[in-house]
Write a structure and sequence with these properties.
Elements: E1 3-7, E2 10-13, E3 21-23, E4 39-41, E5 44-46, E6 50-52, H1 61-70, E7 73-77, H2 89-97, H3 103-110, H4 117-129, E8 135-138, H5 140-153, E9 157-161, H6 179-185, E10 190-195, H7 198-205, E11 211-214, H8 224-228, H9 234-252, E12 258-262, H10 268-276, E13 281-284, H11 286-289, E14 299-300, E15 316-317, H12 324-329, H13 341-351, H14 357-360, E16 365-367
Parallel strand pairs: 6-7, 6-13, 7-8, 8-9, 9-10, 10-11, 11-12, 12-13
Antiparallel strand pairs: 1-2, 3-16, 4-5, 14-15
């Protein structure tokens, strides 16, 4: 990869965001109705390559069920309001009415309520009773503490999600989570991330993870770049991790690890580009927080915003675009790329001549920086 000289004492590689690339039509086109957007991870099949991010503004037990019935996967934040409060309606209503100056401090106070194991059990049972695939997320710091509760409750897919998740975390003050040992002991597939480089992703794949999240999550609500100076342009990050998947397949004798883009996905065009760069699926937060059913009531925030020591996210107003079904499956009534996400993906695949997601990962891509 070509390096650019930043100054005489520092060089860096050029990286690309989704806005910097475009896909190119080929000689063949297809009927959009003939295109498949289905994908599998382990024994679970989904009609839509969409995971709803474990963020309280986007996913409640009810919306996780609704997304599952539409063909996607709703991932519940097992450190969120639904595992801290028996009924978080009051807290959600308050969050939606906070002034900008008091939002972060009040979020920290609301999320100071302890997580309750019995509520983890009850929320998972509620989703399971609806007959959809059950997925729950914990941070690396909480994974070992609550994993037994999660597994006994009957989760199908376990997500370990943080701003950055490393297979080699080092600490002098506490025993870090040994991901390889932890995943080996579990009886369910584990999706882990974020990772943003080839090397980091390859190490996560070697832990036995079924899927790797690419990026730092957060998206529209994240201030990680401003606070920590850390940022991963997503087109390059997804392509690098897809390269790690290819090499890990050779190394492991054919074991396939799914790549899931997580962050920087504000429109249907971003989803199209993520898959064109090698993602098998995408994890969406702010886009789904715009649904009429979303618990955030037109507002969006993540766990980064409630950290009691160093918040790295904001509560942001995203408004409402339509129902969950309209956002995912249409019909669209606006040309913003915020509704009928899967219809747009189908159209892009059909226009470039590809019939399924794995084929579409081979689509021609050009670097075409665009600034609206």
């Amino acid at each position: 990869m070509t390096e650019i000289e930043i100054g005489r004492g520092k060089r860096g590689t050029r990286a690309w965001a989704f806005d910097d690339i475009a896909i190119v039509p080929s000689r063949r086109t297809r009927d959009p109705q003939d295109v498949s957007t289905a994908w599998n991870i382990d024994a679970y099949r989904f009609d839509l390559p969409v995971l709803a991010a474990p963020m309280d503004s986007a996913v409640s037990p009810e919306t996780a069920i609704a997304i599952g019935k539409l063909g996607g996967l709703g991932v519940l934040d097992l450190e969120g309001l639904w595992t801290r409060y028996e009924d978080p309606t009051k807290q959600l209503e308050e969050i939606s009415k906070l002034s900008g100056s008091e939002a972060t401090r009040r979020l920290q106070q609301i999320y100071a309520e302890p997580i309750k194991a019995e509520l983890i059990r009850d929320r998972i049972a509620q989703i399971r009773a609806a007959g959809v695939t059950v997925a729950g997320a914990l941070s690396p710091q909480r994974a070992a503490e609550f994993s037994d509760t999660v597994i006994k409750a009957g989760v199908d897919l376990f997500v370990i999600r943080g701003t950055t998740v490393s297979a080699e975390h080092v600490s002098k003050t506490h025993e870090p989570l040994n991901l390889k040992e932890f995943i080996y002991k579990l009886d369910v597939p584990v999706i882990v991330g974020g990772a943003a480089t080839y090397t980091a992703a390859l190490h996560l794949m070697r832990t036995g993870a079924a899927g790797v999240l690419v990026g730092f999550g957060g998206g529209a609500a994240s201030t990680t770049r401003k606070v920590l100076g850390i940022h991963a342009p997503m087109a390059t990050a997804v392509a690098d991790v897809a390269g790690a998947r290819r090499d890990y397949m050779d190394e492991s004798g054919g074991r396939y690890v799914h790549v899931i883009a997580d962050g920087g996905l504000g429109t249907s065009g971003d989803i199209v580009k993520a898959i064109s760069c090698g993602a098998d699926a995408v994890m969406l937060g702010s886009v789904l927080a715009r649904a009429e059913e979303a618990p955030g009531r037109g507002w969006h925030w993540g766990q980064e915003a409630v950290n009691n020591q160093l918040p790295r996210g904001n509560r942001v107003e995203v408004g409402t675009s339509g129902t969950l079904e309209q956002i995912l499956l249409g019909p669209a009534t606006m040309a913003s790329g915020e509704t009928n996400l899967i219809g747009a993906l189908r159209r892009a695949m059909a226009t470039t001549g590809y019939s399924d997601l794995k084929e579409f990962q081979r689509v021609e891509v050009v670097v075409a920086p665009y600034h609206s």
